[in-house]
Amino acid sequence: MKADRKGESEIQDEALIAKVKKGNEHAFRLLIEKYRDYLFKTVYSIIRNEKDAEDITQEVFVRMYLSLPQYQSQGFKAWITRIAVNYAIDVKRKMQRKREEMLEVIEVEANESVELPIIQKEERERIRQRLEAIPPNYREVIYAYYIDEKSYQQIAKEQNIEVKTVETKLYRARNWLRKNWKEEDFR
């Protein structure tokens, strides 16, 4: 008795497919209703996510509809199952690759967030050492002007000297830096 129903089901499927190929939308809706739960369970067994399985099942029906002209009565249920399984596996692989790429990005960002402060600290230390090499009479004015960002007037007032003296010291300090420092010393 069960074999008869299976044969009847296949005959009904073939009749519906013939109607769909002729443009009958109602026949396609009947196929969707008949196989929706079956395909969802098939896809869910691969994806293991209800929302994604629903989306993939809908996409399987679209792919099935577009592929129906190539269908050649080789067992409709097996044919749509193959479409569903192959598509679900493809989507799962893409999701895994995307997840792996995201993990790589997170890992790189984590490494950079650890490395950056260390590099910055090393760079600050190297610059501090270079600044210590400047003669003391130039170092004070360099620190005040470039590091503390003070004006000529503020420096003059704090060091109890004339503004013109500040200008002269900065001029001489810059010349000393040009002669004694090379750009590659800071790389």
From TrEMBL:
Belongs to the sigma-70 factor family. ECF subfamily. GO terms for molecular function: DNA binding; sigma factor activity. Residues 31-97 form the RNA polymerase sigma-70 region domain. GO terms for biological process: DNA-templated transcription initiation. This is RNA polymerase sigma factor (Sigma-70 family). InterPro entries: RNA_pol_sigma-70-like (IPR039425), RNA_pol_sigma-70_dom (IPR014284), RNA_pol_sigma70_r2 (IPR007627), RNA_pol_sigma70_r4_t2 (IPR013249), RNA_pol_sigma_r2 (IPR013325), RNA_pol_sigma_r3/r4-like (IPR013324), WH-like_DNA-bd_sf (IPR036388). Pfam families: Sigma70_r2, Sigma70_r4_2. It comes from the Bacteria. The keyword Transferase does not apply. Signal peptide: none annotated. Residues 124-177 form the RNA polymerase sigma factor 70 region 4 type domain. Keywords: Sigma factor, Transcription, Transcription regulation.
